[in-house]
Amino acid sequence: MKCKFQLFILLCTISFNINAQSFFNIGLNIGDPAPPLRVKAWVKGKPIQKFEKGKIYVIDFWATWCIPCMDLMPHFSKLAHKYQDKATFLSIDIYEKENIPIAKIKKLVHDMGNRMDVTVGVEENKLMSKNWADTSKAKGIPTIFIVNDGKIDWIGHPKYADSVLTQILNKTWKPGFALIKRNDQLYLKHLELMSAEELTAKVYRYKINMTGNTYDRVMISPDSILLVINEMVKNVPSLKYLPIFVAFTFPALLKTDPQKAYDFAREVMATHTYIDEPIYLSLVYFIEENSDALKLPEKIYRLGAECCQAWIDSDPYPEFGLTLSSYKRMANLYRHAGDLQKAAEAEQKAKDFSLTNQKLLNQ
Predict the structure, then answer these.
(1) Which of 33, 186, 267, 354 is the most buried (most CB within 10 A)?
(2) CA separation (Å) from 259 to 252, 334, 335?
(3) Which fold has domain 26-173?
(4) What are phi and psi of 57, to 5 degrees?
(5) CB-based contact 154:145 (threshold 8 Å)
(6) pTM above 0.90, yes or no
């Protein structure tokens, strides 16, 4: 019975996945043959002309103006050293500023030294931007593509690359399931984009400002917002967990029914959407924003502190993220909850993290 049920769920997921793709075109995806490398200049390492059969390539897309790309480059280099005998690591500069000279890119790479210790190339005529990033709908950097035996095994954020690569090397990676998950994420993103304009139009009204002869945008009442959202999500329940719906639902519930707000936040925390980074800190923001105007119960503040901890636990690169500020916000939330001991513990963790992080950055 259990096997039949799992098969039923899989078939439903595949059916949903196929229907999702009919709404929008994904030109390049997991399982597809990798497009050719189109590089006009190799500025570090041994040039790679083409993907060789039976080999694994890990391709990091970056640009000189992309601060997160540069911050994460040392981690990509460590990953390259870890798997240097099992995969080839490339960093390809795409989406670069117009007319930036190759010499300037080469100098930046040289100055990075061992922090950028991989083969580095610069795309030719935006062909890799177009044929890789754009057509795959991975329109953000840093993004990593893993090519295995000439086919794309994975597309995603660098923070997940180590786990995925380990599974690929252990022969436990399932590209088919990865494809289903990615398509579902893209479909949810598509749904949010399609519904965002309608939602914002329904929750705001425009009033004439007689003094300035302009229009002021005024939000409708919290109860009315919830009615609008309930009507919109009636046929597509998964919409209510998408970021823009959370951004209207959670504050409205905080103002009308804190217990329902608490329950909804728990659902949001447990629900995976298209966003790689969970929206824990968004929930924290709405709690903080309403802390002065509303008399929120203690459990809401404790929930916010829990969200801060969940964010910290989920961040693989805390030295470049929001760990320090999350500890400070956690301390403040515990103070609002009346738990001075946990507030002091969070403040101490912030101090300890700051000292440790500074030592690491100075090394």
Answers:
(1) 186
(2) 12, 18, 20
(3) Glutaredoxin (3.40.30)
(4) -125, 135
(5) yes
(6) no
